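Long-time lurker. I teach an intro course on protein structure, and each term I like to show students one example going from raw sequence to a predicted 3D structure in token notation. This year I'd like something fresh instead of my usual example. Would anyone be willing to generate the tokens for the chain below so I can use it in lecture? Attribution to the forum is fine with me.
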Amino acid sequence: MDKTNTFRSALHQIFDGGSLSDSLKSSLRKEEIELLVQLQEQGLIEEAIAIMDSTDLEVNWELLKNKLDITEGGTNRKVLFGKKNILKYAAIFIGGVVASISFYNWHTSRNQDIDPTLDLGKDRIILTQADGSKKVLSEEQGSEMVMFDNDGNPIGVQKGKVLDYSQDGTKSTEKELVYNELMVPLGKRFDVILSDGTKVSLNAGTHMKYPIAFPAKGARDVTITGEAYFKVEKDGSRPFTVSFSDGFHIKVLGTEFNVSTYAEGVDVETVLVEGSVALSTNDSKQGELVLKPGHKAEWSSTDRNIDIAPANIRLYTGWINGELIFRNNKFETIVTKLERAYDVTIDFNAQDFKDKRYDATFDINIEDVKEVMHHLAKVVPIDYQVMGKEIAITKLQTKSN
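-- Reply from a regular --
Happy to contribute to a lecture. Here you go:
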């Protein structure tokens, strides 16, 4: 099989099954695999197949590598891929120089017909850019990828599990705000450094919307669904706010806190580690409440009230280091957090464990789900069966004498 047909076969295999077989992957060069990944991330596999089927031109790899600025041979490989570059230079590879302009124009004209919710896989970290395009973020260590806006300007750099918007020095903007959205799936965690230097750790199953550069004046505002730990960069003239649906807001100047929309029985739960935060809702009669370190606040959209109480901080922030800590928790709560952390589905009868509470601690960095279930069975009287991502739990039947 010649090089063109091998690459065509690879495109078809990805389009049909979503991934490459080991045998076909071994017949491709490193550059070819790199390009396939980029085409898949941009949702261009089908278009690439159509272009290849319409041309017999050969590959010009030297031209491609020069255009993409691919540096090989080291562990700190830098890949400077912008969306427009991928569209144009992928065309150079699969169809020759003559086809590049037609490929780009064809994709642009068809963009309205392409499903904006591309099937990128439930286990992929997805960045949605201002124009609605979606990019899959790899978690590989040792590589670096520069993110570009629609005009080709660099806006951020991804290094492994960190996406950094602060490196270009653009901490604020006078222009209209441009937003990115990041979705971290179940079973994954990811970190973002915002343009002002604020560090945000995102837990599994979390979505965050944020501007690529905060306004020069006024609040620095982001929205969250899920769970996140904020380490806010202090700026007295621009308060940092986290906003939620139904009008709940957290305002800070410089502080560290954890916030979750997964808390049992409430819509938002926030725990303050250091500094101070002000809590408010659009329609609460309580006004603005101040949360002190070592305390947690809970807000429910049902009664529209904010409740504040002392808290054991480690129970709420251990997940940052991979710890799942349960103290006097309902079995349903333990199951829900395990499902989220390991991206599994656990089937059990809630009535079997009604009104029972348990203590347990797990480390997802070193314990897989089978090990966790083994240890859980020592704490909770259960039988279990692990079948891939499906786990069936039954209450352990005690033997009568």
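Some talking points for your students: Residues 55-89, 94-120 have pLDDT under 50 and may be disordered. The longest strand covers residues 323-330.
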